[in-house]
Amino acid sequence: MCKDVVHEFFDFGRHPLSQAFLSAEDAAVPGREYRYRLAIGVCESCRMVQLLEEIPRERKFHRGYPYHSSGSTVMHRHFTEIGRRFLGTELSGDDPLLVEIGSNDGVTLRTVAEAGVRQLGFEPTGTGGAGRMHRAFFDAGSAREVRAAEGPADVIYSANTVCDIADIAEVFAGADALLTADGVLVFEDPYWGEIIERTSFDQIYDEHFYFFTASSVATTAARFGFELVDVERLPVHGGQLRYWLARSGRRAPAPAVAEVLAEEEARGLTSAETLKSFAATLLGIGDDLVALLRKLSAEGHSIVGYGATAKSSTVLNYCGIGPDLLPFICDTTPAKHGTVTPGSHIPVREAAAFRSPYPDYALLLAWNHAEEIQANEEEFRAAGGKWILYVPEVRIV
After folding, report:
1. 2 band by pLDDT with thresholds 50, 70 and 90
2. Which residues neighbour 24 within 8 Å (Cβ) at sequence distance 6 or greater?
3. From CA 18, how far away is CA 60, in angstroms rounded?
4. Domains of the chain from N-terminus onward
5. Cβ contacts of residue 320 below 8 Å, gap of 6+?
6. d(C-alpha 317, C-alpha 370), whole Å
7. Which of these, 4, 104, 130, 245, is most buried using a 10 Å CB contact count?
8. C-methyltransferase domain location, by residue (predicted)?
9. In angstroms, what CA-CA distances link 213 with 289, 298, 302?
10. What is the DSSP letter of 134?
11. Which of 320-324's residues contact partners 24+ apart within 8 Å by CB, and which partners?
């Protein structure tokens, strides 16, 4: 985390780990769930938005980690496309190498491997999938080990992982040790600008330690001899930015860099006024959501949750939503079936439970996949069912 002064601007209270799904019996054991203070602040010097408490990485990412990126058709397509893009650009030279930090079940690696290009994924959880895997956390030491065995990498790519690494210096030290002189570090993560715009506060949970802006990435990269040379807006996961970094002076920055930096300055994304307004709006959304669920329940309507996501841990625990308001949550991940949600202890059931029978209302906790989910659940709407959303405000659709 940043070594400079970090000013706190919101405290969500004590929370469990977002992916710590337990059996109902284990969850009932006092002290069984690890808790930490979920509070967020901004660095005085680099303006990096970040958590105030660091959770040991071995607690968050371990064998049995339940998230698989290929579970979503949209995300499968997204990772296939970036793999093909690398093949046509950065990986078009002589015997190139792609290294992925947090490769999960290997969609990007598979795309590159099928083209006959060397690839290697850093994946400490041991998640099964395509591609060659190095079961280790990415840092300077493990990067040097790979360099000695494989040679330098032309691309180091990461999706939804760099923001999880509290010791950001190790990311850049590892990139410096492993990349070729003209290689690129490319990563994509939730964008603080979108979180502010949507008040998508459930993006704030234990796995996301940093909440990047182009400005904070550029400032941080410069400290380690790297430069932000391009930036792209991505629609996935509620709005992300993809950052392209190279060693300072090796590439001319694309026009998009100056454009996004100027926009961020004009918006004041990390100003005291913006952060204060964000906190006030967040409070209102939490109150509105609980009030709506209580009203519908009092009227005798059936309500269930849809998507036992990591981000749902924040909204459920912060708002105090439990089985009294949501009898169960449906999810497509087999490993979560028969468990209860972290902290809130709402039973997680298979997707088929959503249809037998359909509820009157469904709280869409996986709102970042709303379009895909609603298209797959057209019969729910046809049966008179309605969705409850809370980003960017509480509403029924």
Report:
1. low
2. 339, 340, 345, 347
3. 8
4. 52-272 (3.40.50.150)
5. 290
6. 22
7. 245
8. 235-392
9. 28, 42, 40
10. E
11. 320/290, 321/289, 321/290, 321/293, 321/346, 322/346, 323/347, 324/297
Quote the DSSP letter at residue 3: S
**Tens-digit pLDDT profile for residues 157-206:** 999 999 999 999 999 999 999 999 999 999 999 999 999 999 999 999 99
CA dihedral in degrees (27, 31, 33, 38; nearest 10)? 130
Residue 133 CA to residue 127 CA, distance in Å, equals 9
Spatial contact of 59 and 35, defined as CB atoms under 8 Å apart = no
Bridge-partner residues for 43, per DSSP? 6
One-letter amino acid at 174 equals G
Q: Note the pTM of the prediction, 2 decimals.
A: 0.92
Q: What's the confidence (pLDDT) of residue 58?
A: 80
Chain position carrying tokens 């002064």 = 5
* Alpha helices for the chain (secondary structure H): 24-27, 57-60, 73-88, 107-114, 140-150, 168-178, 192-198, 214-223, 255-267, 272-298, 310-319, 370-376, 378-382
Cα separation, 69 vs 85, in Å, equals: 19
